[in-house]
Amino acid sequence: MSKKLAGNGLWESSRMMLPQHKEQSLSTREQATAAANGAAGIRAPSPPTAKDIEVIRQYIILPVALQIVEKKNREVERSSQTLKSLYAVATKVLAQHMREDMQRCRKSLIKQQIRIFEPSTDGLDIHYRFVCRGIEDEFTMTKDFLKSQVSLAIGQYTNNLIAILRGTGSR
């Protein structure tokens, strides 16, 4: 007979735990951690707010929109359209505004203690894992939803540019 199975070794080698015991163990551990952190003056991590989720969404959408605008800019510069210089300048201005907003998003993420990791895809969905003030979560978008949000973002930037050119908008 093997050493593990000798005597009470069978029970000792078992790693099975009832769900009720696991829940109780986890809640006891969380309470002890919260009590220790409270005594040390450390706040419990707060879950992501709606503002945090919006910044994460913008951080995901803006690079895709910027990539599309830059691609269109290269296409326009190589074309023989009559107004190609106007289109090229417009796409460069759009790209510059998007870069500025991306920089604001990055700073906001740092300030709000949010880290976003590389996405993973499973066919129709794109999953972005993030850590927000110590709480790990996942942000999921379908590819169709991302495309529609990118189109809306480019449309908003275009409308803002037109408003600025008319003198009615502000940046």
What features would you describe in this structure?
It is a single chain. The protein is of the alpha+beta class and 171 residues long. It has five helices and four strands. It has helices at residues 9-12, 19-40, 50-78, 84-111, 143-166, and strands at residues 114-116, 120-121, 125-132, 135-142. Strands 1, 2, 3 and 4 form a four-stranded antiparallel beta sheet that branches. A hairpin with a 3-residue loop joins strand 2 (120-121) and strand 3. The mean pLDDT is 83.
Describe the structure in brief.
By secondary structure, the protein is of the alpha+beta class.
Based on CA inertia axes, which overall geometry fits? elongated
Tally of contiguous helical segments: 5
Structural category: alpha+beta
Low-confidence stretches: none
Helix and strand element order:
HHHHEEEEH
Multimerization status: single chain
Rg, alpha carbons: 26 Å
